[in-house]
């Protein structure tokens, strides 16, 4: 038996990539510079943009006591992923989150723990429309105590749609600047029908002619603020659709933008499962193998890389450059070290690779090693940290 | 170190529970008898029922080359779970599956491998409606070469809705017998809008007044067969909604039945993730601990049970009654045995529990053991079989 490289998966928080481009203290690689150039270009064409996130819902459809926006996914609340997705877009100047009074402290703790920035909190209303209106009021210039400035365009997004990408945000913002309002749409998954009062089928709608209205949506701030100021209590209580308010009260026909399947809303418990799998898939694309790159075993590492490269991107690190090494052959020390680094969200396991002379057996052993590595990385379950696995 | 019980999760196929009630060769417990009584009662009121499953789709929305109904979930094709759900309902006499010619052999292999019964295969048409029509034709009595008999009521279901329960099937069948047609509905998750020709918002529908039409649906066979025989080529090419055909061609207003959230259709890749998590959750409720129930370690097992009982149901088995035992202390033998039982879909790992005198340390050790067991059971990942884990 020869000691193999420890299988260790990366931290759960890859960090806000786009925000790094806004900072001045980053090492400037060619790729970053080119991206930063595009970013500067974007800054010139994009108007002043803020975002409002209604997050006052109770999540009754989820069937769990925690409101869905606060449900943990890999130990981190769902809303934190959504905030991260918005923060990465550096041309969104302010993000106003509407939360209920009872969740205000919890939300502040989330912002502190995950170091969210550019966030302002307002108290949510009892309905979605009332929460959005609270957020808009905070952005309007006529609020004397506000730290915020009125944006030209405001994005309205849901706290429970964590996978929103910069390109769709840019599309709705650009379309809103031109048309006054814009929203993402998706094809219908099911036919929509209109039941009669006695619960029978009256009419089924032509699926091809209808679309599901999703988020994000964007509006010229003056348009949507005017619509909310004019709309009735009935609208505020029972309405769900901001585009409808812009149409009804400001006669603005929103531009509809085809969104990607990623825009779906976490609604049911199964959606939490799906979100967890997607997040795992996104954060576990890379592994780093710690090994003595000068020694005989080097080619073993490269054979493992060969087996894993369809699933994962493999990096090598010389074992002399890391603070452990020979010590890690001892099971107790692996466990102690694993306990230590878990605090920094690094899940560490040991992997012993059996290293026989027989080529076929070596091949089997390496294949099993690759399977174990891929399993640990993909499942990312903290229950197995500190274990010494054998291939 | 003392050898602990091996952590071993149950087989992936819990087996068709309801079908067992239809057989005569089962041991009759009181609970089974009471259930069998209800079953007999059901047999009297339920009409002759068959089901048609269109499974000819290409799954283009999934973004993967395999049609979604054949995508593997825990190594088993999605459609096999759906067939299992229908087979469990013993009052469904025949299940007609429409598959494309190119997938016919694959489908036969699935039926054989998972021992599906009461299945007839027909060739799918190029659209969903044409596939359903093929299934109905096979059930109609006027087919001279058919082994099937015409049912009074036919259920139409989707191959990609694996979590259908008996109660909703019974509801749609009962309502179809009374009204001629019935279908499951769900509240809308998103507002539905009607875009104008230039891609702007024309009209948004009142979400509270509309519903999503889901599956299963059920029809008096003569009604739906008549509707399909009369309907136009345009309907067969572009239509999606069977309830609509019954309304348009037979003037039958379908009864709409509120379905559970489980009825959702596997449409996108994220739905496969969700389905996998739900299946894992359903199959991994029970563990069996193999231990010497006479010895000192007994109380260790019960303390583990205490820690696990909120998450899992724990059973004990005396180690003298199983074919391994002392042998399993040897790592190589665990791995060989694990390889052997994996063929029967049993995932076996060893778990060594450190057994110190110090009460606090013992508590820590047991807690870690419970975490490892819960992790292995819930993740159910075959990449870790044969490993000896240490708590």
Report strand order across the widest sheet of chain A: 7-6-3-8-12-9-13
**E-strand count of chain A:** 18
Helix content of chain A: 25-40%
The helix count of chain A comes to: 13
Rg on CA atoms of chain A, Å: 25 Å
Rounded mean pLDDT score of chain A: 82
Verbal overview:
The structure is a homodimer of 391-residue chains. The first copy, chain A, is an alpha/beta fold. Chain A contains 13 helices and 18 strands. The first copy, chain A, has a 7-stranded mixed sheet with strand order 7-6-3-8-12-9-13, sandwiched between helices. In chain A, strand 6, helix 4 (104-113) and strand 7 form a beta-alpha-beta unit. The longest helix of chain A has 21 residues, at 359-379. The radius of gyration of chain A is 25 Å and the shape is elongated. Chain A starts with a strand and ends with a strand. Chains A and B meet through strand 9, strand 10, strand 11, strand 12 and helix 9 of A and strand 9, strand 10, strand 11, strand 12 and helix 9 of B. Strand 10 of chain A pairs antiparallel with strand 12 of chain B.
Please describe the topology of this protein.
The structure is a homodimer of 391-residue chains.
Chain A lengths: L1 E2 L4 E2 L7 H6 L7 H16 L3 E6 L17 E2 L2 E2 H10 L4 E8 L4 H10 L5 E5 L4 H12 L13 E4 L9 H14 L1 E7 L3 E5 L5 E4 L6 E10 H10 L2 H6 L3 H9 L4 E4 L10 H15 L2 E6 L6 H11 L4 E6 L12 H12 L4 E2 L1 E4 L5 H21 L8 E3 L1
Parallel strand pairs in A: 3-6, 3-8, 6-7, 9-13, 14-15, 17-18
Antiparallel strand pairs in A: 1-17, 2-16, 4-5, 8-12, 9-12, 10-11
Helix pairs in contact in A: 5-7, 7-9, 11-13
